[in-house]
Amino acid sequence: MAGKPCTDDVQNGRNGLDRRTFLKGAAGGAAVTTVAGCLGGGDDTISLGALYIFSGFGSLYGEEAERGYELAVEEINNDGGIDGQDVEIISRDTEGDPNAGIRQMTSLIEEENVDGLFGLDSSSVAQSIAPQVQEYQMPLMATHAATPFLTSPEGEHDNSVGNEWVFRNSNSLSHDMYGAAQVAATLELDEWATIGPDYAFGYETWDYFQAYCEGIGVDTAFTEEQFPALEESDYSPYISSILDAEPDGVITPLWGSDLTTFLGQAEQSGWFDEIEYTLFSVGMGTDLPADGSPLPEGELASTRYDPFEPDTEENNEFRETYVEEYDTLPTYNAEGAYRAVYLYRNAIEEAGTNADEIRSTFEESEHTGPVGEYAFAPETNQATVPAIWGEVSYDDEYESNVLDSLEVSDPSPEEMQQALEDAGSDLPTGV
Prior knowledge:
- With 431 residues, the protein is an alpha/beta fold.
- The longest helix has 20 residues, at 59-78.
- The protein is globular, with a radius of gyration of 21 Å.
- The protein has 2 domains: 21-171 and 311-374, Rossmann fold (3-Layer(aba) Sandwich); 174-303 and 387-422, Response regulator (Rossmann fold, 3-Layer(aba) Sandwich).
- The strands form 3 sheets. Strands 1-2-4-3-5-6-7 form a 7-stranded mixed sheet. It has a 7-stranded mixed sheet with strand order 9-8-10-11-12-15-16, sandwiched between helices.
- It has helices at 59-78, 98-110, 123-136, 173-187, 200-215, 236-245, 256-269, 271-274, 313-326, 332-351, 355-364, 413-422, and strands spanning 21-24, 31-34, 45-52, 86-93, 116-119, 140-142, 166-168, 191-195, 221-226, 249-252, 277-280, 300-303, 367-369, 372-374, 387-395, 400-409.
- Residues 408-431 are annotated as: Disordered.
């Protein structure tokens, strides 16, 4: 089947970038990204499906991912594509909702005939989709959703959904909380509390933080916990409950517009004068909107990718190319999406578009990207990439929050498993 004729007169991308071509499907919420190539699939095109949140409270993450995969597509197609075939990304909005996510995934596979899937911001969406891609035998490269249960093999725990078709190229909540526990060990605070979203991600963050703290011997107490609903507009009662408990430190996995709402109200409440340390486990995930509050300097935050670490030619080139293209530093969601497209490029160049061969290539190969060198762990398909914690500062050159005094946490799976066992926890590492 021949591809559809090319056209150069469609220039209405989401970000107004006239170097790219977008087609938005009115009914399916789809967008197609290609560069110097034909749209619509066919013999001259490799199609990949991107599943992210493009609307609502988490839309910032979809926008950042879109920048990353756009850049990858541009680079790959300008370099001759994949064995002479252009790459196109067909993106769909999961809305952060499991049912919408499954519906969009099904459409990408059955209607668009994509060669592979990547993305996912929400842990609940990821856990719902994982069994479905196993049924379809379709490779899925998760780039953001952090629940350890996504890569914990099915049967290991009641909530585990990991299978041979699901991979994750970023670190997980489990990695991140081991690093947070290491930070807590250095801070030596008497009491910790949490404020997180009222769904699995919020509860899992608190559970893993406590388990790893106990497992590595952090001498502390865990006190107040607050879990406001997603898209909460009034954080004052939750903030008051935390402040009344007078903890020394608070860990928070609030994200998206919920994080910006919380930050503004926390600042007004005197939070940062009363709480000695606040650990933001998602705070460096994306640019904060201009009308929100940036992370206060001196607080501690984590990231799954730092634009200045590692100091390699590949990372430095990616950072500067991204800055030149978008006038901002790349976030971890941008880097993860960028790297996912290259993972597919490398696999398809080696093995073709057969889904089982793509999956096997992911499993068996050593990989590299801006994040550094890594592989996928044999039993979980979880990438061996570290968690990074640091102190928030502001960089005038890049006009962005950055992390200083980085603590790179890269424990072995055995160390993580031992810590959970020492804590008496049945949580899976997912690594």
